[in-house]
Design brief:
heterodimer, A: alpha+beta, eight-stranded antiparallel barrel, six-stranded mixed beta sheet, 29 strands, B: mainly beta, nine-stranded mixed beta sheet, 1 helix, 24 strands
Chain lengths: 547, 372
C-alpha cells in the first residue's frame, strides 16, 4: 500500500516563508516550553487510490510515543483519525490560539505535526474530500510556535525537499548538529520526491513510521545520552527504512530531512531513559532484532543490534519477547520483569527459508506431475466411432517432467516433457477385437508466472501460477487388426499447453503442485485425412524439488 | 385366408421358425468386412464383378473395393416384420465422381428389388438410410451395386432394427409376396393362398401372420399332382406348400401327405415305410416297431421305418441308413438337411441363426435307399 503525497512546491513555498520569519528564539530561563502535537491518520483513499490499512494505526502509535517518551502531555496531543478538512482546519485554528496564548504569556512552545495518509500534488486526500496544501501550509505556519516539526508519511513526500531557498537534506551523512537551532522548522518525510512509501503487513504499519518510532524508543540513541534527537531519529529512520525496503518489490525508500533551524541546542524528540518501562538488549546480542508485544501481537521495534553495546528500547508497560535473527538462526527470548534479556535462556531454531516477494526459495525446480483428463473429440475420433470403434472407459493419463529456472521476479522458464496415454479404441469383430492404442509425447518450452499468495509464513511458500508452453509433439499409434495384423506409426506435429494451479514449497527443497492444464497437440493422422489433436482438459498433481 | 390342416402347417412353420431371428437388433453380418475368407468376403456374397480388400482409415482395418464397371455384393438377412418394420442402414463410403453406387433392397429375398437408394459421391463420409417395410415380410436381401469406372470403397456396412422411421416415410411393399413369405391374407400372396395356424407351434412367429403357399389341399392342384412340401425360395423364406407330383418322393424325402410319397406313407414329415401308433397296423413285422431312422433330434423330417437301425433288412429291401441293412450298406441318394429339416446341398441354403450365420447342412442319410 502506498501513501501518495505530492508536495510539489506549494507547501514548500510556504515553508520558505516560515523559515525566514524567526520565532521567539529563546524560552525564558527555567520556563519549559509547551509542546503540542497534532497527529493525523487517514486510511481513506481518494478516487483511484487504495484504502490504506495502517495509516490511522500509525497515527495512534506516534501519539502514544510522544506521550510516553516525548514529554508531551496527553491532553496536548490531538489525535485526529479519518478527519474531514474542516476538522483539520478547526484543530489548527485552535492550536494557533493555544500557541498565541502561550506566547502572550511569555512561554515558548513547540509543535509536532504528523500526517499519515494519501495525498496528491496540490492537496492531501481525506477520502472523498481534500485539503489544499497551500491552505494547510498557511494554517500550519500561522501557528507561531518556536519550533515546528513536521513529519509526513506519504508517497513522494520527499518532494518537499525541492523547497525554495532550502538545501536538500542530502543523505544520512547530514549532520544536523551543525545547523540546528532550538527554533525554526524541520520537516521529516518518509520518502524522496520520486519514491513510494510502503506499508508492511508484517510490521502492521508503514516502514517509515515504524522505524521512526523504534528510533524514538531508544534504538536511535546513537550517543547513548538517553535522549533521541531529531538528528538521531532521522538517521535511524533513514538507515532502517532503507534496509527494510531494499528488497521489496517496490524498491528502496529514502527518508528525507529538511530543516531550517536556528540556535545551538539539539532538538530532543524523545527521552527513552525516562521511560517507565524499557527492554535492554544485552551487549552480546547481535542480529536483526524484533521486539514483539505478545498481547497485541504486534512488533513494536525492529532494529539491527550490533554486538558490543547494550541498547535500551523504551516501551509501554506490557508483555514482550525478543526475536533475534542471525544468519539462518532465530532466537526467541523472553523479557524479564526488569526488562532484561537473558540470552542463555533464548530458544534457538533454524529459520525456514522465506520467499521474497516475487522471488523463490530456489532458483531451479524439477517437478514430476501426474495428469489425467478427458480426451479431445475431433474428426479423427468421430471417424473411429463411425467405423464402429468404442473408446475405452477412463481418462487420458500420464506423466510430465518439468524443469524450470527462476529468471526474474515471478517468472520462470524451462522445459516440459510429457508422456500421456490416450484411451484405447476397440471394435469387436467376432471372436477377436481390433484395437487402437495410442499415446502422445510432447517436448515443450514453457514459461511460468508464479506469485506467492502471502508475504510471510506458509502463505509465502504457497504460490499461484499460470503457465504456457509450446513445442514438439510425437504421437504413437499401434493398431491390432482382427486377424493378427498389426502396425505402428509415429507422427510429429506441434504441441501447445496452458494451465494454472498452485505450488507449495515444503522445507528441505521439496514441494507439491496441483493445477489444471489444457493440452493441444495435433499430430496423429489417419489414412483418410483426419488428424487427432491429442489433449484436452486435464488435472495434475505433482512433486517438485528445488535446487 | 385359408386355414391348413395341422399336418400341413408343419413344414411351413418349421421353415418359418427362423422368423424374428435377429439378435440385439443387428440385421446384417460382418459390418466391418473383418471376416475376409482369403480374397473373398465371408458374410457378403459377390453377386457379380470382383472385389478387393483395401485399407480404410488404417491399413489394418479393411474395407471392400468394388472393382470393375459392374460389380455387386449382396447379403441375405433373416430380419422379419416380427423384428422390425424399420431398418437403419449405414455405411462409410469413399466413392469417386465417376462411380455410380446403389443400395438395392430386395424384401423377402426373392430376387425382386423393391427399392433402390443411390449413394452420393463421398469421401469417407458416413451415410445412413432409413428403410420402412410393410409387414409382414420374411427376410431382406441387401445388394450394393456399382457401375462406372470410378473407385468405390465401402466399409462399416451395417443395418440394425430402428424406431427412427417417421410414419410419413414411404414404406416398401413386397406384396404380392412369393411362396414362403409372410402374409396377412390371400391377397398378399402371388399364389393367392395364405396359410395360417395360430395354435400348433409355439413361439414360431406365425401367431398373427401366415405363409404364402402354392396350394390348399389336393383340390387346388392339377391332375396327377398333390399339395405337398415344396421348395424354399431362399434361406430366409419358409418351405411352402406347392403342388408336387403324386407318389414321386422317395423314402426319406420331406413330405406332408402320404400321397406325395412313392411308399404311400408320410410320417414325421418324411416319406416313410410305416405309420406310427394305431395307424401303423401291420406295417411292420411281428416284433418290429415303427420308429424314426435318422437322428434329427426332434423326430421330425426323418423317415420312419420298421426296426430302424436294426440291421434287419435284407438285400433289396428299402432302407434309409446303412444300419438298417443286414449288409450294413444302404445304397441311395445321399441326403442332407438343415436343422429345420429342409433339404439342402450347402449351408447357404439353410436358415440363418440369431448370430446371422447360416445353419449347418448335415448329411443325414439316404433317400430312396435299397439294402445291398
Amino acid at each position: 500500500m502506498f501513501r501518495h503525497l505530492l508536495l510539489a512546491g506549494a507547501l514548500a513555498a510556504g515553508t520558505a516563508v516560515t523559515l525566514a520569519a524567526p520565532r521567539a528564539a529563546h524560552a525564558q530561563a527555567g520556563d519549559a516550553p509547551s509542546t503540542y502535537a497534532i497527529v493525523i491518520g487517514s486510511n481513506a483513499g481518494g478516487p483511484g487510490q487504495d484504502t490504506l490499512r495502517y495509516a490511522e494505526d500509525d497515527a495512534r502509535k506516534v501519539a502514544q510515543v510522544l506521550v510516553e517518551l516525548g514529554g508531551v502531555s496527553a491532553d496536548r496531543v490531538d489525535v485526529i483519525v479519518h478527519p474531514t478538512p474542516d476538522v483539520i482546519r478547526a484543530r489548527l485554528d485552535h492550536l494557533a490560539e493555544l500557541v498565541a496564548a502561550d506566547a502572550a504569556a511569555g512561554h515558548q512552545s513547540r509543535v509536532v505535526f504528523y500526517y499519515s495518509g494519501h495525498a496528491r500534488a496540490q492537496a492531501i486526500d481525506l477520502g472523498a474530500d481534500e485539503l489544499p496544501l497551500d491552505e494547510l501550509r498557511k494554517r500550519l505556519f500561522d501557528v507561531k510556535a518556536t519550533l515546528t516539526v513536521v513529519v509526513l508519511d506519504a508517497c513522494q513526500s520527499g518532494a518537499f525537499a525541492r523547497v525554495k531557498g532550502a538545501a536538500p537534506a542530502a543523505d544520512f551523512s547530514y549532520s544536523s548538529r551543525e545547523h540546528l537551532d532550538a527554533s525554526g522548522v524541520a520537516v521529516l518525510a518518509s520518502s524522496s520526491g520520486s519514491e513510494l512509501s510502503q506499508e508492511s503487513e508484517q510490521l502492521r504499519g508503514s516502514y517509515f513510521t515504524h522505524n521512526l518510532l523504534v528510533g524514538l524508543r531508544g534504538a536511535g540513541d546513537a550517543n547513548g545520552d538517553g535522549q533521541v534527537t531529531l538528528d538521531e531519529a532521522y538517521q535511524y529512520a533513514y538507515h532502517q527504512t532503507l534496509l527494510a525496503t531494499a528488497e521489496t518489490a517496490v524498491g528502496s525508500q529514502h527518508v528525507t530531512f529538511e530543516a531550517d533551524l536556528k540556535g545551538h541546542g539539539e532538538v530532543a524528540l524523545s527521552f527513552p531513559r525516562a521511560a517507565t518501562a524499557a527492554i535492554e538488549l544485552p551487549a552480546a546480542m547481535e542480529g536483526t532484532t524484533l521486539v514483539e508485544d505478545t498481547r497485541a501481537k504486534v512488533v513494536v521495534a525492529e532494529t539491527y543490534k550490533a554486538k558490543g553495546a547494550a541498547v535500551r528500547i523504551a516501551v509501554a508497560p506490557g508483555d514482550y519477547r525478543v526475536l533475534v535473527r542471525s544468519g539462518n538462526q532465530l532466537a526467541r527470548c523472553d523479557v524479564g520483569s526488569d526488562g532484561s534479556v537473558d540470552m542463555a535462556r533464548c530458544q534457538t531454531e533454524t529459520l525456514e527459508a522465506a520467499r521474497p516477494k516475487g522471488g523463490s526459495l530456489h532458483e531451479l525446480r524439477v517437478e514430476i506431475d501426474g495428469l489425467a483428463g478427458g480426451e479431445r473429440d475431433d474428426g479423427y475420433t468421430q471417424n473411429l466411432t463411425a467405423f464402429g470403434y468404442n473408446q475405452a472407459l477412463g481418462p487420458s493419463a500420464g506423466l510430465q517432467a518439468l524443469a524450470i529456472k527462476h529468471v526474474a521476479p515471478y517468472v520462470w522458464v524451462g522445459g516440459l516433457a510429457s508422456e500421456v496415454g490416450l484411451p484405447s479404441w476397440t471394435r469387436a469383430t467376432g471372436a477377436e477385437t481390433q484395437e487402437l492404442d495410442w499415446s502422445m509425447t510432447t517436448l515443450d518450452v514453457v514459461g511460468r508466472g508464479e506469485v506467492p499468495i502471502g508475504s510471510d509464513g506458509a502463505l509465502s511458500r504457497l504460490a499461484l501460477y499460470g503457465q504456457v508452453g509450446a513445442g514438439l509433439a510425437l504421437g504413437h499409434a499401434h493398431f491390432s487388426g482382427a486377424e493378427g495384423e498389426s502396425n505402428s506409426h509415429t507422427y510429429a506435429g506441434y504441441a501447445f499447453t496452458a494451465g494454472a494451479g498452485v505450488h507449495f514449497d515444503f522445507r528441505h527443497q521439496f514441494g507439491v503442485s496441483a493445477g489444471y492444464q489444457f493440452d493441444y497437440a495435433p499430430a496423429i493422422d489417419d489414412r483418410i485425412g483426419n488428424t487427432h489433436a491429442a489433449g484436452g482438459h486435464r488435472l495434475l498433481a505433482g512433486l517438485s524439488y528445488g535446487f | 385366408m385359408k386355414r391348413l390342416p395341422i399336418s400341413l402347417v408343419i413344414v411351413s412353420a418349421a421353415a418359418a421358425s427362423q422368423l424374428g431371428a435377429t439378435n440385439c437388433g443387428q440385421v446384417t453380418r460382418d459390418p466391418g468386412f473383418d471376416l475376409w475368407c482369403g480374397d473373398s468376403l465371408c458374410a457378403w456374397k459377390v453377386e457379380r464383378g470382383d472385389v478387393e480388400r483395401v485399407p480404410t482409415w488404417n491399413e489394418g482395418d479393411p474395407g471392400v473395393q468394388l472393382v470393375g464397371t459392374d460389380t455387386a455384393i449382396e447379403q441375405l438377412t433373416p430380419v422379419t416384420s416380427d423384428d422390425t418394420t424399420c431398418i437403419k442402414f449405414t455405411l462409410i463410403a469413399n466413392i469417386d465422381l465417376d462411380a455410380n453406387v446403389a443400395l438395392n433392397i430386395d424384401v423377402d429375398g426373392d430376387g425382386t428389388i423393391e427399392r433402390t437408394e443411390q449413394l452420393p459421391t463421398s469421401s469417407w463420409k458416413p451415410l445412413e438410410f432409413l428403410i420402412a417395410i410393410d409387414a409382414p415380410y420374411s427376410g431382406v436381401r441387401f445388394e450394393l451395386a456399382k457401375t462406372g469406372a470410378g473407385s468405390a470403397v465401402l466399409a462399416e456396412i451395417d443395418a440394425v432394427t430402428s424406431t427412427d422411421c417417421d410414419p410419413s416415410l414411404p414404406k416398401i411393399s413386397a406384396f404380392p409376396a412369393p411362396l414362403g413369405a409372410g402374409c396377412n391374407g390371400s391377397a398378399d400372396c402371388t399364389s393367392g393362398y395364405c396359410a395360417v395356424d395360430g395354435t400348433f407351434l409355439p413361439g414360431d412367429g406365425l401367431a398373427a401372420t401366415g405363409v404364402c403357399v402354392g396350394c390348399d389341399g389336393a383340390a387346388t392342384c392339377g391332375s396327377g399332382d398333390v399339395c405337398g412340401a415344396g421348395v424354399a425360395i431362399s434361406a430366409v423364406g419358409g418351405v411352402p406348400w406347392q403342388c408336387v407330383p403324386a407318389g414321386a418322393k422317395d423314402l426319406g424325402e420331406i413330405c406332408v401327405q402320404d400321397a406325395e410319397c412313392a411308399t404311400g406313407i408320410c410320417t414325421g414329415g418324411a416319406c416313410s415305410t410305416c405309420h406310427t401308433g394305431s395307424a401303423g397296423g401291420s406295417d411292420c413285422a411281428t416284433g418290429e416297431t415303427c420308429g424314426p431312422d435318422w437322428m434329427t433330434g426332434f423326430d421330425l423330417f426323418t423317415p420312419y421305418v420298421c426296426n430302424p437301425n436294426g440291421m434287419a433288412r435284407a438285400s433289396g429291401q428299402p432302407c434309409a441308413s446303412d444300419d438298417d441293412c443286414m449288409s450294413g450298406t444302404c445304397s441311395g441318394e445321399p441326403y442332407s438337411e438343415c436343422s429345420d429339416g429342409r433339404p439342402c446341398t450347402n449351408a447357404s441354403e439353410c436358415p440363418l441363426d440369431s448370430s446371422l450365420e447360416n445353419g449347418d447342412c448335415n448329411l443325414i442319410g439316404v433317400t430312396g435307399g435299397v439294402c445291398r
